[in-house]
Amino acid sequence: MKNRTLLLSDSFKNLSQKKLFGAWIFYHAAILIFFLVSLIIFRGRIGVDSDLFNLVPKSISMASVKKADDKMMSVTSQNVFVLVANEDFAEAKRVAEEVYAGLKDSKNFESVSLYNDVSAMGEITDFLYQYRSYLIDEKTADAILASDEGAQDFALEALSKAYGGFTMLPLDNIDSDPFLLTEYHLQNYLAAVQNAGTAMSVKDGVLASSFEGKWYVMIRGVLSRSGAKLASKNNAITEIYRVCDAAVAGAPDSGTTFVYSGTPFHSHESSTSASREISVIATVSMLAVIILLIFIFRSVRPLVFSVGSILISLGIAVVATLAAFHKMHVITLVFGTSLIGSCIDYSLHFFTHWAANKELKSSIEIRNHIFSGLLMAIISTGICFAILLFAPFTILKQMSFFCLTGLISSFLTTIAVYPYIKLPANRGNVRFTKGFSKVIVKMEQKWVGRTVIIFLFAFSIISIAVFHKNVKVKNNLLTLYDMKGRLLQDEITASQVIQYTPGGWYIVSGDTEDEALANEEKLRRQFEAATEGKIGYVSTSSFVPSKEVQKKSREAYKKLMQSVTEQLEALGFDDVENFDAVMSLMNDYEVKKNQYVSFENGNVPQFIESAISSAWLGKVDGKYFTVLLPTQVTDYALYRALADADENVYFISKSQDISVDLDNLTKMILKFFIVAYILMFIMLRFFYSWKQALKIISVPLLIILVVVAVFALANINMEFFSVTGLILVFGLGLDYIIYMMENEKKVSENSVLEPFATMVSFVTTIISFGALALSSFKPVHLIGLSIFIGLATAYVSSFFYGRHAQNDK
């Protein structure tokens, strides 16, 4: 019976050349039309993403909480801080003012702030005075309501402040505010701000701090949507660098330096670095391929068509990915450069026979000769990439979709376009084929192949057994991006100067605004008790209490009012019994009944909204959310335990949560590998004998063993990206043994050409993936390294496994 691969191949080969070329045109035109439609529908939202946070999976499963966390991150992740440093405060302030003037009107920023506006003090005190009966904190209100002594103590404290002269506010309203509640609330608000944890304080109208003999003046900016497009040339970060450089250009010896802090600076650095790597990897890989093709084929035509196929494949992969995902991460683009090696495989198989196989009299015959191998290769690779499309991780989906669309394009180009290429006049002029045939003859002996395969298995198993403690499926988000150089030093300095290093936060939910605030107040009490009040935090309810606390405040205020006559007399007012202020206070209390301070009532002033902009998230997906942000995380287990005890509280620690999610995702990818393994074996058994199928399917097992062994020897964890590389190797590595198996069915004097083409395609693929392994960016490095090791193993094992396949039928 005729081999099933040949039957399938014949069914495709019977298609007319015009139909195949029509399929090539339809495929590429459909993707281009899809891209144009997406460009119109999602105008302004299609582009390259360089945000580091989007490189890793989201750590929250509940949709509403995830949206709330995304909303917070959209604000906080766009914050940038520039510290202007000089030994002379006046000079530091002057330069800061010049930088501020250069940035404040830029479209790249939502806002830029330098000055601590003291003119807002009047607005603050007016608000605190107007709502003084609603803003007594819960502890003080409880003390006042607990006993008459509590109320008396509060009244005496107010008297001591009034007579002692240690008040922050003038006593102009003492007749209507005899308990100095406005003063008390102002101190509480300032304490809440101080409790937020930074070491910056107001000096001469700006936020500044002295550290190790230098003054640091802070400029804070929030990036706009256009400014946050860090892959563009004119973005907020490049503008900051330009304005800061210009500010000190006139006085280079002034001693003024800048400290840059914030996620956008690192995203910009990684984006710039990735762009440089794209250029280097693409250029080096392309040059290596060009030199190799010219040297081997001694003709320009294979070079022109191969490079053209690569460019078409890369172009169609880019537009397809942008059309499908709208945002393509720059790392997907970096990884996509590996197609330079992969996409050329099909071209190399064609042009090897085109240049050297005199038995084949036309380009169509060449296509028919190699068709079964190419078809099986694209099917096996396609299965692996297609399975990754189901991974719950956008970047992984993008990578697999990018490679899949590019490889299909290259495959169609080979079978639909190349048959139109005329054969050269002089054939058989290909370098290295004679020397390669001699090598093959020496390797024909079975003991050579068996020795190599046994050695690879033994080396892997022994290495894993000896270094089994180094075999770990473990991810650490903090190692994916290595801060270095100027930015590393800047972050260290900024942390020491600002003294604010949050490592996690609580997201608190409620069905209503008031319920969310009440839930946060409950968490605050538990948090303060658990940390013994030693850890500061930012919270919404510190500034806008829940209605329950405000009601308690009103009750405490009412109790204080029972002794208002005595308080006014103690303050020196005469004829208090007939004093209008007493009646006014009583009336004011009744008039303001139910005038709670809340966002829904619209009476929360702008200065408070600004102070808690990163804490109050408001209504998201039908629920209300607020954030309690500790200034530091000292005990992750303790902090998480507080959240686990309340269904309305969620503790988010990006580095830990995402690392755990990456661990889970890594295990899921391994399950995908098993699924792909089973599907691939079923497919192989359909086309090949049991012995052939088992030979082919054993290659991925050997790949895994060798990669794990090498990683164990180098003490490198099996992280998400290296495991992802393994499943990609599964698809690419099987191509080699499939080519070998298919070639062994076609015994002739030219049978050496197919192994030779396989060897050349392996070299070109290793060049591109080897370049990825040299990347300084950890995810790209890990993918490249695992694929490099895996492909080398796949080629070596397939070279020997494929021998004498004709006897295995």
UniProtKB/TrEMBL annotation:
GO cellular component: plasma membrane
Keyword match Lipid biosynthesis: no
Lineage top rank: taxon: Bacteria
Transmembrane segments: 21-42, 278-297, 304-325, 331-351, 371-393, 399-421, 447-467, 668-687, 694-714, 720-740, 752-774, 780-801
Compartments in which it is found: Cell membrane
Stored SUPFAM superfamilies: Multidrug efflux transporter AcrB transmembrane domain (SSF82866)
Keyword annotations: Cell membrane, Membrane, Transmembrane, Transmembrane helix
Residue ranges of every copy of the Membrane transport protein MMPL domain listed in the record: 213-421
Main location: membrane
Membrane-protein topology: Multi-pass membrane protein
Keyword Nucleus assigned: no
InterPro entries assigned to the protein according to its UniProt record, in alphabetical order: MMPL_dom, Mycobact_MmpL
Pfam families, per the entry: MMPL
Protein name (Swiss-Prot/TrEMBL): Predicted exporter
Gene source species: Treponema bryantii
